[in-house]
Structures are given as structure tokens and as C-alpha cells.
Design a protein that fits this description.
mainly alpha; Glycosyltransferase; about 350 residues; globular; about 75% helix
């Protein structure tokens, strides 16, 4: 549907809704899990409920956008710079599923995991095809960015959910184990491939300050969620696929955590280069949640790894990053409220005769 001069402000916002909007659910869900890790049950539950509410609202908005602005949705799916943001749907669903498991809502968690797995499978074939085959002769490499890492995060979020399932009937145990190892393996290989593409983009085309956007933080978050997924697989009950991969997976989680920790100073430095040195304005966009999620995921991964491997230093690092993630969530949430208020005021002014 084409836009027109008579489009309302609300309809214009719907048309330009970011494919990465479900990063709000990802960030809220992982901070909830982190608070649960340190025994803060009530704040964890509050954030989980907020995340579930945001999930429902965004699901309605995405559906409405597909109905009213299908041309904009198709354009996003063919744009290498934004298309992989749709994988936030999978990751947000997976994080909520793990949160539901922690609250004892097993049937809800299983239903969410089924949704996450199906959407991951469909998008995993549709989006790369659209990006590669429908590019109309334009080069893809200059438009590779941090949103591509969300593809890896989506795969690992399914693995985290599957590896968190307990009391699975014996008839399904082997299937769950197989799928958990499969999605973890795909996510790990995707990370390696995407990292190569991002490095090639930087080497060949460089990066201007305004191009260093928040989703580049997902490069760290993808490693952190690989740690969580891998640790979950190592702890799964014995099945043929899990037993075959257990040793390999166990050997990678510490390496992934160390690499994630190593990347953080570079990301902080790049952020200072963008906003302090070159004074790029820091304003609210849905992509800001792509900073909160990696911080929360690194905290969750550190706490879990420190406890499993009995390394108090790593657990202490995780606790420190958890409070950074909470502070970042509060700041971005406040910015979202201000942005929504401004949008409502603009709509009210436009509606006046």
C-alpha cells in the first residue's frame, strides 16, 4: 500500500516500524532472567510480565503492518541493512519461553518454543534468499552490519530454550537433544561467517561514525548467548546427539565467553568515538535495545558460567554487568516513554482543525 498525504501520524509510524522492534522483548526478557539469577524474584517477574505485554503489542503491530503496508514489509525483507532485524521475533520469543519455564509455566514455554522454532526455520531460508536474490544488482557487502548477528542470536535462543526443558518424555528426549545441538551448531557457524563478512565490510569500505549503530553490540551478545546455550546442552540428559557433541560444546563455552569479554572495550571505544568525538546525537531508536540485550546476556552468561565452573571471578563480573544492564534498560525505557509521548502530542496537533 502506497503512502499518501492523508496518512495519519499513527499510520506513518506503523509503516516505518523497525523490523528490529522485538529487541525490546529480548532486552526486557534477558534482564528479567539476570535478576532471577541473583534471587530478585519480584523484579524479575515484573520485567517478564512487561516483556510479555510488549510481545503481544508488537505482534499486533507487525500483523497490522503486514496487512496495511505489505510493500514496506517486502522492501525491508530485501534490504540487507535491516532484513535480519526480523530475527528479533525469534530471539524475543525464545527469551520469553525460558522466562516462562522459570516461572513454572511449562505449557506456555513449550508453545512459545514451537513458535520460535517455526519462525526461525521459515525466516532462516526466506530472508537470506530475499537479501541475496532480490538485490537488483546492488552490492551487499557495503550494507552488512550488526543486525546480521541477530540471525545467530535467534538460532542460539532456540537452543537455549530447548536445552532448558526438563521432564521431557523419553520418546521426545532424543528429538529435543537433536534439535538443541543442531540449532547451537548452526548459530556457532553463522557467527563465524557473519563475523568474516563484517570484517570484510570494514576493511573494504570503512565506517563513518553515524554508521556505527547499536546492533554492532550484538556481536558480543551473540557470543554470550552461545555460552548459555552451550552450557545448557552440556547439562542436558544423555541422548545420542547430546553425548556426541557434549565434549566439543563444553570446550567452546569458555572460549566464547573470553571472546565476548575481549570485544566489550572495543565496542565502548567505538561508542565514544561516535558520540563524544564526532558528536553524533544519542536519540531513542528501537535499535538501542540492541545494547541492553548484549549487556544482559553477558551478565547472565557470566553468572551461569561462573557457577557451573566454580569461578567466582567470572560470576562477580556477571553480577557487575547485570546492574549495568538494569541501568541501561531503565534509560532506554525512559527514552521510549518520552518518544511515545512526543508521538502522541504530534498526532494530537495533526488532528486539530
Amino acid at each position: 500500500m502506497a503512502t499518501s498525504s492523508s496518512d495519519s501520524p499513527q499510520d506513518s509510524r506503523l509503516r516505518t516500524l523497525s523490523p528490529s522492534s522485538f529487541a525490546l522483548v529480548m532486552a526486557t526478557g534477558i534482564v528479567s532472567l539476570g535478576l532471577s539469577d541473583v534471587g530478585l524474584a519480584l523484579p524479575s517477574l515484573v520485567l517478564l510480565v512487561l516483556g510479555a505485554g510488549a510481545y503481544v503489542v508488537l505482534a499486533v503491530l507487525y500483523t497490522a503492518r503486514w496487512v496495511r503496508h505489505r510493500d514496506a514489509v517486502r522492501a525491508d525483507m530485501r534490504d540487507p541493512s535491516v532484513a535480519f532485524g526480523y530475527f528479533t521475533i525469534v530471539a524475543g520469543t525464545g527469551v520469553l519461553a525460558v522466562g516462562a519455564l522459570g516461572q513454572g509455566a511449562g505449557p506456555v514455554a513449550v508453545a512459545l518454543l514451537v513458535v520460535a522454532a517455526v519462525v526461525w526455520l521459515v525466516l532462516g531460508y526466506v530472508l537470506p534468499w530475499q537479501v541475496v536474490m532480490a538485490r537488483e544488482g546492488e552490492s551487499i557487502l557495503p550494507r552488512v552490519n550488526g543486525t546480521w548477528f541477530i540471525w545467530c542470536v535467534a538460532s542460539q535462543s532456540v537452543a537455549v530454550g530447548l536445552s532448558s526443558l526438563r521432564d521431557v518424555p523419553s520418546a521426545w528426549g532424543a528429538v529435543v537433544g537433536f534439535l538443541a545441538v543442531l540449532t547451537w551448531s548452526v548459530g556457532a557457524l553463522l557467527y563465524a561467517g557473519i563475523a568474516v563478512l563484517v570484517i570484510l565490510r570494514l576493511v573494504h569500505f570503512g565506517m563513518r561514525p553515524e554508521q556505527f549503530e547499536p546492533p554492532y553490540w550484538v556481536a558480543m551478545g551473540a557470543l554470550a548467548i552461545s555460552v548459555v546455550a552451550g552450557a545448557g546442552i552440556v547439562d542436558m540428559p544423555p541422548t545420542p546427539m547430546v553425548d556426541a557433541a557434549r565434549g566439543l560444546v563444553a570446550g567452546t563455552v569458555v572460549i566464547f565467553w573470553c571472546c565476548a569479554a575481549w570485544i566489550i572495550p572495543m565496542l565502548v571505544g567505538a561508542g565514544l568515538w561516535r558520540h563524544v568525538v564526532h558528536r553524533v546525537p544519542l536519540i531513542y531508536t528501537p535499535m538501542l535495545w540492541s545494547i541492553v540485550f548484549p549487556l544482559g546476556m553477558f551478565a547472565h552468561a557470566s553468572i551461569r558460567l561462573g557457577r557451573v565452573e566454580s569461578v567466582p571471578l567470572v560470576e562477580g563480573v556477571g553480577r557487575g554487568f547485570l546492574w549495568l544492564a538494569v541501568a541501561a534498560w531503565l534509560l532506554v525505557a525512559a527514552s521510549l516513554v518520552v518518544d511515545l509521548a512526543r508521538g502522541r502530542n504530534a498526532a494530537a496537533r495533526a488532528a486539530r482543525p
